[in-house]
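Lab notebook, bench 4. We co-purified these components, and the gel suggests they stay together. Before we commit to crystallization screens, I want a quick structural picture of the whole thing.
Request: model the full complex, all chains together.
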Amino acid sequence: MTYLDYAQSGLAALLAALEQELVAAPADEVGEALRETGRARSIACQEVRALLNEAIATSEEDPAATLPRNPHTALDRLLDVSGGLRGAGRYHLHAGPFPAVSCRRH
Amino acid sequence: MTDTSQQTKEWGRQVVPPRRDVGAALAALSQEDLLRLRVIARLRARSLPAGSMSWSDLLHEAVLRALTGARPWPPGVPLLAFLAGVIRSLCDEQWRRHRRPGHLPTPRDSGGADDPERACAAAEALAAIQRLFVSDVAALKVITGLISGMGAEDIRRHYDLSAVEYDTTRRRIRRTLLRHGLAWSWP
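Here is the predicted assembly.
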């Protein structure tokens, strides 16, 4: 395994572990850490809340805002294609006519 | 990184509503949870291709997919863990889309290990995370152990850390991540 291969698998392992740490961190510990950051805390919080509100508004205006993510998935569901076959076709996900990522409103 | 029983206990602290109402669950997120989400999105965005999605784009898209049902929220999974999973798969999707059109996928593509650009980005992201802990030898040991895929017990044994040392180191790692997750840029 080369260094670059190692970096990629290592990053995947590290991020998974750190995410788990962040999700599981006790609320008082998170609060304590964040209090040290002063005003940045409330700004950051408002920023995330605004993002969530924007996504909620988008989904309410257009419930299919990000759908269909993958026309093959919808087709597979209709035809009840086996998981194995779906897996084999996953490399063609972005060959379809639909954008894979929705456009944010700015 | 934690014992299985402890993980189950800690993850179980997050109340999972019986009905999968993502909008209501998002609205009920605490300030602490919002900031956890922000840090998770920033961590993931750090390893994306240059000029690709920002952390806020990642988070917005993940939330949108959850809200629209494009990514269904499985029963029993805490919302933050679910959204973290959606963000992770969005990152994989970004790399697949980023590859040049003529690229022929191989069986190794699922791990992306044959993509030099992605591997370089991963190396840079790893270096950035390690720089956060450059003055904390114990944290660097734990981080190195995690990069190697070691579990909590293995890390403690390998680096001769007591249970208390290990737990306090984990706490410092979390605090550092949270503080830097609020900053406008990574080191």
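Chain B touches chain A through 76 residues (CB under 8 Å). Worth comparing against the SEC data before the next meeting. The first helix of chain B runs from residue 4 to 12.
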